[in-house]
Amino acid sequence: MHANPDVLAKGRLPVDTDPIETAEWLDSLEALIKHQGPDRAQFLLETLIAVAGKAGAKLPSGVTTGYVNTIQPEDQPRFPGNREIERKIKSIVRWNAMAMVLKANKNTNVGGHISTFASAATLYEVAQNHFFKGRTADHPGDVVFFQGHASPGPYARAFLEGRLNETQLTNFRQELQPGGGLSSYPHPWLMPEFWQYPTVSMGLGPIMSIYHARYNRYLRDRGLAKTDDVRVWAYLGDGECDEPESLGCITLAAREKLDNLTWVINCNLQRLDGPVRGNGKIIQELEGLFRGAGWNVIKVVWGSGWDELIKADYTGALQRRMMEVVDGEYQEYVVKGGGWIREHFFNSPELKSMVEHLSDDQIANLRRGGHDPIKVYAAYKAAVDCKGQPTVILVKTVKGYGIPGDGGEGKNTTHQLKMLAGPIEADPNLSDEQKKSKRLVAALRVFRDRFELPFTDDQLADVPFYKPAADSPEMKYLMERRQALGGFNPTRRKEFTPCPPPDRKSFEFLYPATIKPRSTTLAWVDLMAKGVMRDKSIGKLVVPIVPDEGQTFGMPPMYAAFGIYSSKGQLYRPVDSGTSTAYLESTTGQILQEGINEAGSMASFIAAGTAYSTHGVNTIPFYIYYSMFGFQRIGDLAWAAADARCRGFLMGATAGRTTINGEGLQHEDGHSHLVAMTIPSCRAYDPAFAYELAVIIEHGINSMFVQNVEEFYYLTVYNEAYDMPAMPGEECRDGIIRGLYPYRTVTPPNAKHTVQLLGSGVILNDVLRAQNILAEKYGVASTVYSATSYQQLKRDALDCERHNRLHPTAEKKTAYVRKILADTKGPIIASSDYMRTLAEQIGPYLDGRLTALGTDGFGRSETRKNLRRFFEVDAEHVAVAALFALAERKEIDRGVVKQAIADLGINPDAPAPWTV
Ligand SMILES: Cc1ncc(C[n+]2csc(CCOP(=O)(O)OP(=O)(O)O)c2C)c(N)n1
Ligand SMILES: [Mg+2]
């Protein structure tokens, strides 16, 4: 049989004016493929296309194929499993997944999703029985990014595997219950031995999976871990693909030839509200995108029932029809049934004749590819066998597959379905509650019969869980398959192997005063390049990550000394080769240069900062970026990092609202510390001096990678150069970590008044200047404190306050900030390059003595000096605030303050910075 030219045309080619000639060409092509293989055919076709293109022929882009399966039936591998048993296991998993949500919602309204897993059950079960590797002594296990709201599926399976018990299942979404519950979605923070990566915020799983796969290559190429055999799987929803993070980095995966990455996109054609592409075809759209990006694309559109029909489609009419029907209409077929499909899909005499041997039920049972294990297995096998490219499997399914009753299969409301309701006979004597219960049983009966579950009608009302006996064929098979694949998945490794602590010498060279002025950012570069990355114990584990801003931060010497990771090495001579700042790329380069891609960089940070668990290798990421493009740009990934129990250092560089002068409103960050504060496992610091930075980083490495504390650090570093003083003495070390320590006291002769001054980051310099103004001009004594972390001060104060409140007769705990400041004299003035709220957090513990200055309002382009005056955080404003506070305490006359305002050149009628 010839391939029919009509089929190939699909409306793209001009009209066939000479079908006989076309048939001759096709004959030749078929003979060529038969005798010399598809590679030769490809060569000749590409040559012909090139010649025709030169002659001006308009050529198809070739990125999409027909609306049919990529793998032909004759190319399908043999299915290696026992289909009957696998179907039974899948039915039990389906049942328990549904029961979990129904039970949770019978008595509470904690929610949950039935329909997503129902559509994806075959996709997961085939992988569980044949592909997902578990962790063994010499394999870390495949990494699977499970679709977040499909979580009832993995839980239901883990129940059969004996890893979760009935109480836990019953307590789905009720995590505070006795005996424990199950988290709504994949949350390693809440289930640290089960989930590996959080996914439910749409788009984050996909981007994390790409960078995870690339990080596995990095670990291998740098000799840090064996990762060749580890596959990263990501399961996505088709609706999820609309998130920019989902598809925004797919070219990286192709460029890096990540054949260790497989994406499975569950194209049930629906998202939450309705169809994903009602007026188009999501599968075709995604195919074009991925193929254009360089991925291996496998479409699984139709189940085996369609094979014969497609084979018999001599004229191409069926494939044309498959192509012309839009997704919205395909959804209608699911809901309306076989008769409707015969009438509306097979809508011509020719098409109708193709299905006249089938009953309406048989037509309705022509399944979509994603519900056919044979097709799904073939696609997975092709994906894992594919070399040199990542693979995406676009698989068509029905949302709510098998779910009976209102809001079931394919309905727009199916995503939100939490309770089943089948049809019952009208009975006025029944209460609403009784009706609800009867409806539920009616629906469950249908489900039970369809999936052949062994419950009597009477048992159904309780929605029981079902677990066959351990020696049943199903359970034996299930356990054997997982054993053969190495163990259960998902499983998260909780054990931690500490690193030997780094050498103090790698840090202490930043303790002495600097000879030349220097910024904390450059101090960080020095700390990395001369200390930490050369440390015998941890140097090799450090992973600097930068999104195309290294020059701003002074990093090029690091490029030359440690190299930028490139899987291709360096295929060109860098223009600056031979210099100490050369852009040196190599396969063993240590730095991840991610280009202008903060989200991708954060995904790399997560891969690196969780490698202690995934691979048992304690890589220590330092992700340095423009602080403005940190939390507020990729805050949700930072939240996911915390959930994933990620460790490492986020370095918010060019920090501060007034310090990165000139760059203006979009660049000047005066609030990232407030966002950082919202993440429970993030410790945020705003150091002023190089030695503080060294102390914090040493502490952080020891805490996270030696002592196994589950946290990550956020440090702001600035680009303003100033004299870095020597560390005052060992005793400040504790204060630096706890968030506050006294730095300098100045007592003028005959001092009559005393104040306490707090400064953070670069603004500490202005506070020190204010100290001099107060001493010299107003006879005020003061101590200046470096406030390295208001967040840490607050957390400690909260701990103490809570302890005291809940243990009223126990010995009272005193907050650290009170220990330092409560016995001091006078008002307390704080200033920083961040919003007032940051410092105000410690107000409740300071007896009303605190005045906080800060940079509330939009930044703008100006000099540092002018900006600090504008935001009222400079020395003069600190001095005035101190004098005013003394006047409020009646220690000095208000006239003195008024005069000071004039003397110090402050305009009292300037607009408030947050209003302009
Ligand atoms: C960032 C984000 N936005 C919105 C949601 C809420 N949400 C959860 S599931 C869902 C629809 C998912 O549709 P799809 O990706 O097609 O998955 P399906 O359930 O159809 O497999 C939405 C909007 C979310 N979880 N994350
Ligand atoms: Mg969907």
Looking at this protein, list some descriptive labels.
916 residues; alpha/beta; five-stranded parallel beta sheet; 37 helices; 18 strands; 42% helix; globular; disordered N terminus; binds thiamine diphosphate; binds magnesium ion
Beta strand % = 5-15%
Mean pLDDT value: 95
Helix segment count?
37
Lateral strand order in the biggest sheet: 9-6-10-11-13-12
How many whole angstroms does the radius of gyration measure? 33 Å
Question: Level of helix content?
Answer: 40-55%
Can I get a quick summary?
Helix content is 42%, strand content 9%. The chain is of the alpha/beta class and 916 residues long. The strands form 4 sheets. The chain has a 6-stranded parallel beta sheet with strand order 9-6-10-11-13-12, sandwiched between helices. Strands 1-2-3-5-4 form a 5-stranded parallel beta sheet, sandwiched between helices.
Describe this structure as you would to a colleague.
Strands 9-6-10-11-13-12 form a 6-stranded parallel beta sheet, sandwiched between helices. 49% of the residues are buried. The radius of gyration is 33 Å and the shape is globular. Strand 15, helix 31 (763-778) and strand 16 (780-786) form a beta-alpha-beta unit. The N and C termini lie far apart (76 Å). The protein has 37 helices and 18 strands. Helix 3 packs across helix 20 and helix 31 crosses helix 36. The chain binds thiamine diphosphate (TPP) and magnesium ion. Residues 116, 149, 200-202, 237-240, 266, 268, 270-272, 276, 399, 415 line the site of thiamine diphosphate (TPP). Residues 237-239, 268, 270-271, 276, 399 line the site of magnesium ion.
